[in-house]
Amino acid sequence: QVTLVESGGGLVQAGGSLRLSCATSGRTDSLNVIAWYRQAPGKQRELVAAIDNRGSTNYADSVKDRFFISRDNAKNTVYLQMNSLKPEDTAHYYCNFKSLLTKYDYWGQGTQVTVSS
């Protein structure tokens, strides 16, 4: 079992920045991918950014060069630095852990990000 706890969401004006954190605990396999997803009202959940255990990253086109994902393995935490925020970034942001060994994945409860225009 893996537990994920997100934090760092809030209300920010367009052009501002936020940093989300995802703290992981439990049986976290060494081979894994941790990702941030988001879901806006009336829309499907979409991948925002992901990072694997080697540090390789990928991003949705809509956030490239604005959002940056990183991980601190010593703290079992993944971060999402969000810059130049836009109203369309408003969504509930979820952290996801996927084991590359067992293929199981786990979700956190999410954190709300609201960007005002």
> What percent of the residues sit in helical stretches (DSSP H or I)?
under 10%
Low-confidence stretches: none
The pLDDT mean sits at 96
Q: Tell me the major beta sheet.
A: 7 strands, mixed
Class by helix and strand content? Answer: mainly beta
Tertiary shape = globular
What series of H and E elements makes up the topology?
EEEEEEEEEEE
- Global Rg: 14 Å
Strand content: over 45%
Count of individual helical segments: 0
3D architecture notes:
- With 117 residues, the chain is mainly beta.
- It has no helices and 11 strands.
- It has strands spanning 2-7, 10-13, 18-26, 32-39, 46-52, 57-59, 67-72, 77-82, 91-99, 105-107, 111-116.
- Strands 2, 4, 5, 6, 9, 10 and 11 form a 7-stranded mixed β-sheet that branches. The chain has a 4-stranded antiparallel β-sheet with strand order 1-3-8-7, with no helix packed on it.
- A hairpin with a 4-residue loop joins strand 5 and strand 6.
- 28% of the residues are buried.
